[in-house]
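User: quick one
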Amino acid sequence: MSLERPETSESKSVQRHSADELADLLGDLVIGREEHINAPGYVIRPDSVQETLSLLKNEAGFDHLSCLTAEERADRYESIYHMKKFDDPTQEVSVVVPTSKDNPVSQSAEPVFRTADWHEREAYDLVGIEYEGHPDMRRILLPETWQGHPLAKDYDQERPQVVSLREHANPLQEDHRDDQDSETMYLNIGPHHPATHGVLHLECTLDGEQVADVNPDIGYLHRCEEQMCQNGTYRYQIMPYPDRWDYISAGLLNEWAYARAAEDLADIEVPEYAQVIRTMGAELCRIAAHMLAVGTFALDVYGDFTAIFMYAIRDREKAQNILEDLTGQRLMFNYFRLGGVVWDLPEPREEFFEKTRDFLEELPEALEEYHDLITGNEILQSRTIGTGVLPPEVAKNYGATGPVLRGSGVDYDLRRDDPYGYYENLDWNVIVEDGCDNYSRLLVRMKEVEESAKIIEQCIDILEDWPEDERNIQSNVPRTLRPEDDTEIYRAVEGAKGELGIYIRADGTEKPGRFKIRSPCFSNLQTLPEMSNGEYVPDMIASLGSLDIVLGEVDR
Amino acid sequence: MSSDQPFVTDDSQVLTDTRDARLAGADNRFNSKLREAFGSSPFILTKFDKFMNWVRGSSMFMLQFGIACCSIEMMHTYAVKHDLDRFGAGVPRASPRQADVIIVPGTIVSKFAPRMKRVYDQMPEPKFVVGMGSCTISGGPFQEGYNVIKGAEEVIPVDIHIPGCPPRPEALVYGVAKLQERIANGESSPVVVKPYELEQFGDLERDEIVDQLAEEIDTDDLVMRYNWADSP
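Assistant: Done. Structure below.
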């Protein structure tokens, strides 16, 4: 036994840089300064993106490119790189890259952060900025035949666009895509396929039975969410949309992402009582979301549509019933309001508490069943342990978050690292597994359910003892919100799949000037080729299942 | 155990008991309304078409097809609590070749519409479509989006629309039951001609039948209806 004091994880402190220190670090690269609500912004020239980003990444430790927002302004195009630290996500910095109106070309950040690949393709697709040096500058969400960039200013929203019948061409007509000598075979999986969790299209190149390359083709559920939010007023019209991003019952978690950003933007307080209700509701949603993730993962790995899937749905149904009592809706809750929640707990309260307690009481036993059926099952173990390996550095480089990142052994959870709601005052743990494979991602989800149950239990105790005349569910919020012109904010919460962030730029009206959604699934899905190259096809399907993507959130 | 007395069943007694139970008495499980209607004869007379419609309505094979939020509720409809199987319509088929009902659960966007049309075309006739949720009916909350098709009806014929965002599983069960009722009564949407079927005709040797069939096709109907300007 050594007398040395054990090193605690608390002692891990991350160096903080003031805005001026960062400016000194960047030196001549900075051509202007901006102040966003969340972070300082540095304006740089479009040809020095890589240099700036690698300086910030290597010298200052901003190793998480969480989001890239692109926008057309009145006189320029603009890309904003939102950077964070995995060790301390409260330290943020924005890099603003303006480009000219007539020649919107900016240097690609892809060599510095792999995650910029898809984010820049999306910016090109929707806004029309081109990124120089990008490996694969194509449209990502809209069909190849699409004309114009829908979030650009000169785009005519009324103009019909016809997707021609050429889209009907059978992609399987030629099995060999490349030249005759090639040994590989081209295989489409999806967009209609039971294992793709929605409408995802995987363009696979097979070498024998092994995956030589896989290219996820997304955009089959691109529902123009960002545009819909830009057309809605802050106070009421945006809130229904978050429910429909991650629609696997993670509604409240998504609503919180918008609520957090908009409340910080418009400086709205949320009463403590409402925070507790929010926390409880959000964790119920997380349980429901993880249940389905576990059920469909079992479905993917050994096609078990009978037992595990039904068990998972059974327990999900219980969580949904409680959420239905709470919010009045089954799937699309629309329960949060800016400054609180829309209703108090249902009356009679005792009944609600009892129902929730019963659910929590039965949960350990149910989870035991899952462990028997899934994680303890040798077949599943031999199919998932050591497959779909995602090393932590790769995961970070791709901007993966949530259970995917924690399954790779990176201790990153915004609920703890960038606290919001009532999480700070509760006793729970962040689950981290360092297996980096499909199995550890599954394990993280199963254990997170237990942690969520812990949180809910504490919330219920708090709510039960709350004095009756202090049950304040909403603060005073003006009927019409008009945040000041040109205020910008990026705020994220820990959704069921990872970091769900919202960027809003206010333009002085009651509607946002730019509304950007940073969805965890979009970044997580990017890691699929990394995980599955060289694996067998069924292992690729398992990897896809372990990522737990929701196409509503990937495509938005 | 003694073996001097072998186990003997008095089968005359068993037969009588069973027969008695079937005909009348305490256990009347077998004496259904249908049996009463039949009388003593095990035969019924009906039209073949009518019989086939009843058969189709009573055993529906649903395509396992998920698009968006509604598909989560659809999964719940198939699963433990609501169990669509009880209504004779709950075997999800992974292949369109084995299915005769497609539930369209979610928003259809321009990139996906041709693919969905293709899946629909691959289903064998007769086939039926259930439009689930507001997006499938009209584009729903996303109707004003630049990319969203304003309802599945723009692409494939829909038999039953189930409103809601998303509809509860109960609503889907009700919609499917209504569809079954319609099928059993011989009502369903007209069958559409597939655009590339004409091309396939083109490959055929032009004998009399092909000529006759080709003449019956109205070329105006052949293109997928993507009429954005006129849709609501």
